[in-house]
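Lab notes, practical 5.
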Amino acid sequence: METKLQRKRPKYLNLFKIKQPLPAQVSILHRVSGVLLFFPGIPLLLYSLQRLLESPESFTEIRLILNDPLVKCALLLSLWFFLHHFFAGIRFLALDLHYGSSLEQARLSSKLVLIAGFILTVFAGVWLW
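Output from the prediction step:
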C-alpha cells in the first residue's frame, strides 16, 4: 500500500541539475531574449531615440554615451539577444510548418541558430569597435 502512494507522489525535479538537450536550451534562450528585448530593451531604445531627435546637444550627449566601452558591450549583448530571438523565431515558424521536426533536423537547426547569432554578433562587434 505504501509503495502505491509513493508512486503517485510528484517527484522533485531540480531543473538546474538536469541537462537539457540543445533544442530545449535554444527554446529557453528564445524566451529569455524575448523578455529582455521587451523590457528594458524597448523603453531604452525609445528613450534614446527621443533624446537623439530632441536637440543637437542631446544628440552629442548620446553619441558620447555610446562611445563608452561598457555601453558598447551592452549593445553587443542586446544585439545577440535580438539576433538569437530572430533566428530562433524563424526556426520555430519552420517547426510549426512541420519543417525540420525530426530529432536530427531539430538539433541541427538549434546549432545553426546559435552559430548564426554568434557569428553575426562577432561581425557587428568588429564593425562597432
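Observations recorded by the TA: Residues 22-54 form the longest helix (33 residues). The two ends are 68 Å apart (CA to CA).
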